[in-house]
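Tokens for Molybdopterin-dependent oxidoreductase-like protein. Go.
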Amino acid sequence: MKVKVPAEEDFKSAAHDERVTARLGLWLGICFGLCFVTGLLSHAIQHPPTWFYWPSRPVNLYRVTQGTHVISGVAAIPLLLAKLWSVYPKLFARPLAKSLVNLVERGSILLLSAAAFFELITGILNVAQNYAFPFFFPPVHYAVAWIAVGSILIHVAVKLPIVRRALKASTKGDERPGVLSRRGFLRSTGVVTGVAVVATAGATVPFLRRVSPLSWRTADLPVNRSALAAGMTRLDPGWRLKVITPGGTRQFSLDELNKLPQTTAELPIACVEGWSASATWTGVSIPDLLHAVGAAPGAEVRVESMERNSIYRVSVLPSPHTSDAKTLLALRLNGEVLNADHGYPCRIIAPSRPGVLQTKWVGTLEVLS
């Protein structure tokens, strides 16, 4: 018995209409665009090129950009699934390639689908801190993002005339009782996307936390890396903070740090996984500390943790942050001495910085310029 292979024209569902596909593609493009741009910002903050500038104010700026990055990624998941459902009959189009342009188009779709799924799946696993993949997440995620965006641009360039025509056309006209219409499919996709966003956005949007059952951080101020994991459960009784300047080196005991002028600021911890939480921090402002050692605020400062087994044990505070009075060498959290998990005896807390750069268990500060 010969089995008939379906042809593209055999799919009559309203969900497969080009007007639906074009609108889903537009929504998905907006989400991917937001996700890509905010991801580039996060990458540049952590690995700044010489021309890059990131301000210290407003203090919640990174919280907003990285929250947008993760939320737009979550929103892209149902949109991508709906878009693929809308276009999957194209898999049955024959011949496989009608021209060189058509071959490039179909290849870009395959590459786009693979890259998009890779980005979204590994992104969600990273948010959950479930590293089920055998590679270091940040550089691979960054590289594949460029592949995804490149394939999107190729796809849009090839399909632009069809997209323009479809977006201008109305989605009315196929409403029938008991049959999902074009508008019904789009509305359903929008509702599912909205539910996905609300169910997860509480990790970064405080007023949504009570209605976000899938929020991946619920503690008042979570920690990604505990003192036990970092091997920092015991402090050397002879600990001193070493501050290195071009003019020499000075050391401070914890008592001496507490006797310096103290600054209190409400600042968020905003992590690359998208969660964020605010707290009240007290300690020595970096400008005051630089003045105390004869250095000028605004100089770059290399921060080194006493932790030895982390790739993030060293960070650099750039000029905008070392001149900002809210950039602190924090000694207390919410009025209490820092506990080991939050970086005792002292840690960096700076406005508008990723959590991975808010170095804990600080041992050395070096003035670079």
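The beta strands are 241-245, 248-252, 263-270, 276-285, 301-305, 314-317, 328-333, 336-337, 347-349, 362-367.
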